[in-house]
Write a structure and sequence with these properties.
Largest sheet: none
Helix content: over 70%
Structural class: mainly alpha
Distance between the termini: 41 Å
Number of helices: 5
Order of helices and strands: HHHHH
Shape: globular
Number of domains: 1
């Protein structure tokens, strides 16, 4: 599979994740029951992450029409995506650590958060041309790590609703 095919798949997955998050938000809420802070935080995180995935997965296609330079086609989307992801991951870690809500499945959440953060740092450095310059493989691994993190957040959202 070429990186472009994988990016198209990630864009479709991002659309699906945003759609499922919207469905959960629309149909699970009981009449008159307010959303808890942890539920709102998870839904917002999933939606922002999903739209970030969609835009950054499609950006190399658009940039390839402008230039063939790897620094533009791969570097710019990598920097944008990893910056967004690192911001979301740091925010998530700070919110979870503050004790405002329970971190579901900490035995898997913490390693996934660390792995996703590490891959996003590697993707940022690759996008900047510092380490493995403009590597589509690193970009795809960053997407994959965020998908695993997003799936975990989605399962935690469902678990928080059912409890």
């Amino acid at each position: 599979m070429v990186p472009e095919d994988a990016l198209a798949a990630f864009a479709e997955i991002g659309i699906g994740l945003a759609g499922f998050s919207g469905l959960v938000a629309a149909f699970v809420q009981h009449a008159g029951d307010p959303w808890r802070e942890d539920q709102k935080a998870r839904i917002v995180l999933l939606i922002v992450m999903s739209f970030g995935m969609i835009v950054c997965a499609l950006l190399p296609y658009a940039l390839a029409g402008i230039s063939d330079a790897a620094g533009l086609v791969w570097g710019l989307p990598m920097v944008l995506f990893s910056t967004l992801c690192l911001g979301l991951l740091v925010h998530w870690a700070l919110v979870a650590r503050s004790g405002r809500f329970k971190l579901h499945f900490p035995w898997i959440s913490i390693p996934v958060l660390v792995l996703a953060g590490g891959l996003q740092v590697l993707s940022l450095l690759s996008g900047l041309g510092v380490v493995l310059p403009y590597s589509p493989t690193i970009f795809l691994l960053g997407f994959l790590s965020l998908l695993v993190f997003g799936a975990l957040v989605f399962v935690a959202l469902l678990n928080s609703i059912w409890n």
